[in-house]
Design a protein that fits this description.
Structural class of chain A: alpha+beta
Order of helices and strands of chain B: EEHEEEHEEHEHEEHEHEEEHEH
Shape of chain A: globular
Distance between the termini of chain B: 28 Å
Number of strands of chain B: 15
CATH architecture of the largest domain in chain B: 3-Layer(aba) Sandwich
CATH class of the largest domain in chain B: Alpha Beta
CATH superfamily of the largest domain in chain B: Nucleotide-binding domain of ferredoxin-NADP reductase (FNR) module
Helix content of chain B: 10-25%
Strand content of chain A: 15-25%
Structural class of chain B: alpha/beta
Largest interface: A-B, 57 and 51 residues
Radius of gyration of chain A: 21 Å
Number of domains of chain A: 2
Oligomer: heterodimer
Distance between the termini of chain A: 35 Å
Number of strands of chain A: 12
Largest sheet of chain A: 8 strands, mixed
Largest sheet of chain B: 7 strands, mixed
Order of helices and strands of chain A: EHEEEEEHHEEEHEHHHEEHHH
């Protein structure tokens, strides 16, 4: 109960040090994925959906395309944009409700996951597993093996290094791939699940033969002092900064929808008088209706107050509750914001402020 | 009673509408009886807790459980119909089925109030979260000292639980001070006229060995706390309930927080001391 113990809430195994290091060629990785698909395992990977890179289930390994950071994060493999939580049927005065059993979720291998996306997933374990257990999220976590992929390129918006992660961060990955010069990957395991995957397909892996890995990406942002950011936030709920940065926010919610760590959701019924489905849909604290009371009162009655909640939740509230930061520096919110709000610049402003 | 046996924490219990009571032109109370016998027997809650009520096809709404935990076999909720879900709930008739998830949140530490005087202060539609406790205490009447209820609304018509106000007024072991805002009184009005904080000040209940329980719109709470302070109440002697928009009620969906406090998990019941430690975002 309250306060939650900081740390691992989910009962899921924590990542260990790499206990196995192997090598795999691109061709063998494709064979591995195709054989998994053939076994009936859901393989989710970045691929191009009409010109948009997304993490989606593959029907064939050749469809994997890790060239670009997917538009949305990998969290949707566990926490879909929209998911059914029950169905109802009405007949006269009677209602029948049918449970949607989380046990039905398929075994999944999530492959080609960028370190920023993989690192955010165990952070979400905390909220979905403290006190009440959200089995929709947790059952998918148990059934999913995450294969992370080191980044060899970064753009101006990338800032994983600022929040203490890196293009080679293995947090969240069961198995981690680092590209080799001339093709193929070094493959390290960080959990029993990762090791199991290699053991089950050991003919596709070889011992590491001292091959050189590609140089890693080097995002230009240096490490920031998250403790200092939090210390400022602890004291500045009221501050002119909030008006200054967020009056221009249009409240579109795009930053939350592309974020690997945002996890707010709505619960809605969709259907007719007779039958329908109750769904859990992504939501965003930037929307005015998010906190709007039935009475008309709204505790966050302006965009600056809503944006303040976004920053506070990421760098203070979640830390207060679970000892973690809700940002892995993927930079998506910076890329998609229609009015150019830059979370890195906000953090810089906070760090450079006098008190 | 948490749903630990149920893997899907979002799945509601089914309940039958057993009674429909119109409190005001737009506030309605529903008495609900759980359809599953086991749930009916085992549904245990404490005064102050809330639930998620669903009208299938429209969605869920959050209200407190307005009936007293001392009265088993049913629960009640009171709500104003102002949105999609509440309008749909309003359409329900006796015998219809609705959904209930809960009970959620913390509760009033009733046992700590034993032996003390109680002052209830409520405004408008905010009486339900106190009514659960009022009946809880009245049903255990000899455990408490003096009981004072200060309740006001904009007009006579906006007062909820009118039949119960009458009952409290007639009881010799309850002091009821009812009031309406200036201009809200009809010709036959037998209560006070004035805003709740002012009328509370005039009623001047003693703070000695007394607990004050305040529930109302944010503006009423804002003006009531200084009045209580003037009467000698410390912040530890004053309790209130916060009501923020909620969806899950389970500490997940991320909207009911006031600063780092989740109203659904850490609340909805807070002392004035806790309230004052929160940022002004409610």
């Amino acid at each position: 109960m309250w306060p939650p113990k900081k740390g691992n809430h989910s009962g899921l195994p924590l990542p260990l040090r790499p206990h196995m290091q192997k090598q795999i060629t691109q061709q063998n990785l494709n064979i591995l994925l195709d054989s998994l698909i053939k076994e009936g395992i859901r393989v989710v990977a970045p691929h191009m959906n009409g010109g948009t890179p997304l993490y989606e289930p593959l029907t064939c390994s050749a469809d994997m395309n890790t060239g670009q950071l997917p538009r949305r994060s990998a969290k949707e493999a566990f926490f879909p944009v929209c998911e059914d939580i029950m169905t109802y049927e009405k007949e006269g005065q009677k209602v029948t409700v049918t449970d949607i059993d989380p046990v039905r979720f398929p075994e999944t291998v999530l492959v080609g996951v960028r370190p920023c996306d993989a690192a955010a997933i165990p952070v979400l374990d905390a909220v979905f597993s403290w006190d009440y257990k959200d089995e929709f999220f947790l059952e998918r976590r148990r059934k999913t093996t995450i294969i992370g992929l080191a980044c060899t390129t970064a753009d101006d918006a990338c800032f994983c290094t600022a929040v203490g992660l890196s293009p080679a961060e293995t947090k969240g990955s069961d198995l981690f791939l680092t590209p080799l010069v001339g093709g193929g990957y070094v493959c390290e395991t960080y959990s029993d699940k990762g090791e199991q995957l290699i053991t089950n397909h050991k003919e596709l892996f070889s011992d590491t033969g001292g091959a050189k890995t590609l140089p890693l990406a080097q995002p230009e942002t240096g490490k920031i002092d998250l403790k200092k950011v939090k210390a400022w936030l602890d004291e500045h709920f009221e501050d002119p900064l909030w008006d200054g940065i967020a009056t221009r926010c249009v409240g579109c919610g795009a930053c939350a929808f592309v974020c690997p760590a945002c996890h707010c959701f709505d619960i809605v019924d969709e259907g007719t008088e007779k039958a329908g489905t109750r769904r859990k849909n992504w939501d965003a604290c930037g929307f005015w209706k998010f906190t709007h009371h039935a009475s008309g009162h709204n505790p966050r009655d302006g965009q600056p107050k809503r944006y303040r909640n976004r920053i506070m939740h990421k760098f203070k509230y979640y830390d207060d509750k679970f000892g973690q930061t809700l940002c892995s520096g993927c930079g998506r919110c910076v890329r998609v914001c229609p009015v150019g709000i830059d979370i890195k610049a906000i953090i810089d402003t906070i760090l450079n402020s006098e008190c | 009673m948490c749903d630990h046996t149920n893997k899907n924490i979002y799945l509601p219990y089914l309940a039958t509408v057993a009674e429909v009571i119109d409190e005001t032109p737009d506030v309605r109370t529903l008495r609900l009886v759980f359809q599953d016998e086991k749930v009916k027997e085992n549904f245990v809650f404490r005064a102050g807790q809330f639930a998620e009520y669903s009208a299938f096809g429209a969605g869920e709404s959050t209200f407190c459980i307005a009936s007293s935990p001392t009265r088993g076999g049913y629960i009640e909720c009171s709500f104003r119909s102002v949105g999609r879900v509440t309008e749909e709930l309003r359409r329900l008739e006796v015998g219809d089925t609705m959904g209930v998830r809960g009970p959620y949140g913390n509760s009033y530490p009733v046992e700590e109030f034993y032996g003390k005087n109680l002052v209830f202060v409520a405004g408008g539609i905010a009486l339900p979260p106190l009514r659960t406790l009022i009946w809880n205490c009245l049903d255990l009447r000899d455990k408490f000292g003096d009981i004072t209820i200060v309740y006001g609304a904009r007009t006579e018509a906006d007062l909820v639980y009118k039949r119960e106000l009458k009952e409290w007024q007639e009881r010799s072991d309850v002091r009821l001070v009812k009031t309406v805002d200036p201009g809200g009184n009809g010709p036959g009005w037998d209560g006070s006229v004035g805003f709740v904080p002012t009328v509370l000040g005039e009623a001047a209940p003693s703070a000695e060995s007394t607990i004050a329980l305040v529930c109302g719109p944010p503006i009423m709470i804002k003006f009531t706390l200084p009045v209580l302070e003037k009467l000698g109440f410390t912040d530890e002697q004053v309790y209130t309930t916060l009501e923020n928009r909620m969806k899950c009620g389970l500490g997940k969906c991320g909207r009911c927080n006031v600063g780092n406090v989740y109203v659904c998990k850490d609340g909805p019941v807070f002392t004035a001391k806790q309230l004052k430690a929160m940022p002004m975002e409610f």
